[in-house]
Amino acid sequence: MLLRKQFENSPGLARVAPFVVFLLLTYCQGKFGEASRYWFYLAKTLVGAWLLFEMRPFVAEMRCALSWEAVAVGVGVFAMWVGLDGLYPKMSELSTKVGWSKSAATAVAAWNPQLQFGAGAGLAWLFIAVRILGSALVVPALEEVFFRSWLYRYIAKPDFLSVSLGKFVALPFFLTAAVFAFEHEEWLAGLLCGFAYQGLVLWKKRLGDAIVAHGITNGLLGLWVVGKGAWQFW
Fold this sequence. Notes:
Elements: H1 2-9, H2 11-28, H3 36-55, H4 68-83, H5 91-97, H6 104-107, H7 113-117, H8 122-156, H9 170-182, H10 187-204, H11 208-228
């Protein structure tokens, strides 16, 4: 009840705090041994789902909207994400070149529970299922609310609720996409992805299409990872 009251009294907090909590739990992945990468992913998915439930009454735009544009963008971004793989240096490689990390090999390890728990192990498949469901159902809403509903509009004007979701402003358009890109190992795909999702919000003048598109992208990517063994995307 206390959390809902805080969300009700602060529109900004309702859109920012859940994402920050999710990021903090993401940071904890792997900090307590290799297996903690998977247990913390499970924890952050459950916490993220709970936070979405708590914030939903106070974030009116957080309503999924299925449209052909959302499906097209979701599938298109997935194809772009996979198609660009290997054509540009990843974030960890760039970090190594500028001295931010010791080596690209140790900066980002593939997220593959089959290596940790054994191929075909029940725990491995549990974490694979959690990853696919979490990335397709929980992550999109948390990220779209933070980036496209709050950050984009806040950069445009601190009184962000007065900025229409369909209003194009150049600085927040490019800056929000850049911040979104640096959240991902595949930074170039993330940048183009940010442009696509923000463009969808501007086009449809609502957030729900971007949430659906994001969910489609992540769901297809998860199935691709498991089906093709392309664990580098995780």
